[in-house]
Structures are given as structure tokens and as C-alpha cells.
């Protein structure tokens, strides 16, 4: 399961989980446990809803959130 932050056009970003990352051939993104970034409920989604489908034409971009399982990425730096 992957945590993603979906930036929907003219709305607040949606934090959710997906079983698989979306592919270029998908028509929409299936988001499990959608919520605001701070964990609060989305005002346009009913409380009992656990999955929403967001069509690609409404999505500006998606951020893939790091998980505890990911390796630490070391970036180069200068002294």
C-alpha cells in the first residue's frame, strides 16, 4: 500500500492510500481512506465513504509520500 497526496484542480490536496501506483494507461485514481493533509475529513465526501475515484483530467499532479520501509536517500552536499 502506498500513501499519495493528490493535487486536485481547484480543491485542497487529498491524502490517501492506493494499492498500486497509477500507471499511464489508467483513466482514474482509486483512493482509499481519503482525507485532508492534516487527517480531517473532506467536506465533499460522506463520512462512511472509504474509497473515491478521481478522474485524471481533474488531477494536476500526485506526490508519493515516503514510507518507513523506503531506504534513506543521501543527497550530495558541499561544505
How many domains? The number is: 1
**Helix segment tally:** 0
Query: Mind summarizing the main beta sheet?
Result: 5 strands, antiparallel
Q: List the helices and strands in order.
A: EEEEE
Total count of strands: 5
Q: Indicate the proportion of strand residues.
A: 35-45%
CA-to-CA gap between the ends? 38 Å
Q: What helical percentage do the residues reach?
A: under 10%
Determine the CATH topology.
SH3 type barrels
Radius of gyration using CA atoms only: 14 Å
Query: Mean of residue pLDDT?
Result: 87
For the record, what CATH class applies?
Mainly Beta
Which residue ranges are poorly predicted, with pLDDT under 50 across at least 5 consecutive positions? Answer: none
Spatial strand sequence of the major β-sheet:
4-3-2-1-5
Q: Give the overall silhouette.
A: globular
CATH architecture: Roll
The computed structural class is mainly beta
Q: What topology does this entry show?
A:
Elements: E1 2-8, E2 14-18, E3 28-35, E4 51-55, E5 59-64
Antiparallel strand pairs: 1-2, 1-5, 2-3, 3-4
Amino acid at each position: 500500500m502506498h500513501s499519495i497526496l493528490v493535487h486536485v484542480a481547484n480543491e485542497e490536496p487529498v491524502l490517501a492510500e492506493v494499492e498500486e501506483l497509477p500507471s499511464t494507461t489508467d483513466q482514474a485514481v482509486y483512493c482509499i481512506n481519503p482525507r485532508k493533509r492534516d487527517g480531517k475529513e473532506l467536506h465533499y465526501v460522506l463520512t462512511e465513504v472509504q474509497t473515491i475515484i478521481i478522474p485524471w483530467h481533474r488531477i494536476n499532479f500526485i506526490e508519493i509520500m515516503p514510507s518507513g520501509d523506503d531506504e534513506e536517500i543521501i543527497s550530495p552536499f558541499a561544505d
